[in-house]
From TrEMBL:
Organism: Xanthobacter agilis
NCBIfam families: flgA_cterm
Stretch list, region Disordered: 35-57
Job of this protein: Involved in the assembly process of the P-ring formation. It may associate with FlgF on the rod constituting a structure essential for the P-ring assembly or may act as a modulator protein for the P-ring assembly.
Lineage: Bacteria, Pseudomonadati, Pseudomonadota, Alphaproteobacteria, Hyphomicrobiales
Descriptive protein name: Flagella basal body P-ring formation protein FlgA
């Protein structure tokens, strides 16, 4: 009974679309035909990792058109950095590549970390990655003031976390004053004179 209930959606779809020429006319014949089609599809996809939006036929046509998307070569977990060593290109259909949901190139993922689990072989959606946090709230950070020939550096406690380019508030450890600066790629914070 369970085997037949698994094919009910297929049967409903076939009945809704109508039975064309050369197609089975009875429910039992439709069930047999759906089972045969499903087993044929299973044989085609055996051994290939499944990915949303990517089918075996689509991979072949995408390879012919040279359309690819970066995918993890290993499963990545939240907080793991996306580096060229863990990324590989995989053929993808044109509609998936042009949808804008997925990272188009590996260089678009440079400096990013995984927000959620990224399975191996599955295209990486842009909502699944985030910029690496360079300054963490409550963890002492180096602050630098450079104006003309003046160069002052010291330490402050960030009041908020931020990635490179973010504007954050910090508390000066020596004076207790609140200062504002821009997070740099090296993890320091650059302060500007007002």
């Amino acid at each position: 009974m369970r085997a037949r209930t698994a094919f009910l959606p297929c049967l409903a779809m076939a009945l809704a679309l109508g039975c064309g020429a050369g197609r089975a006319q009875s429910i039992s014949a439709l069930a047999t035909q759906a089972e045969a089609e499903r087993s044929a599809q299973g044989d085609q996809h055996a051994g290939a990792p499944s990915a949303p939006g990517l089918s075996a036929g689509a991979e072949t046509s995408a390879a012919q058109l040279n359309l690819t998307l970066p995918v993890p070569s290993v499963t990545l977990y939240p907080g793991d950095a996306l580096t060229p060593a863990v990324l590989t290109d995989r053929p993808a259909p044109r509609n998936v590549v042009e949808s804008g949901m997925y990272a188009p190139r590996a260089d678009a993922l440079a400096g990013k970390v995984a927000r959620r689990v990224l399975p191996a072989g599955v295209p990486i959606s842009m909502s699944s990655v985030t910029d690496a946090i360079m300054v963490t709230k409550g963890v002492t950070a180096r602050v630098i003031l450079k104006e003309g020939g003046l160069h002052i550096s010291g330490y402050a406690t960030p009041l908020e976390s931020g990635s490179a380019g973010a504007i954050v508030r910090l508390k000066n450890i020596d004076s207790g004053q609140i200062i504002i600066g821009e997070v740099q790629a090296d993890g320091s914070v650059r302060i500007k004179m007002r």
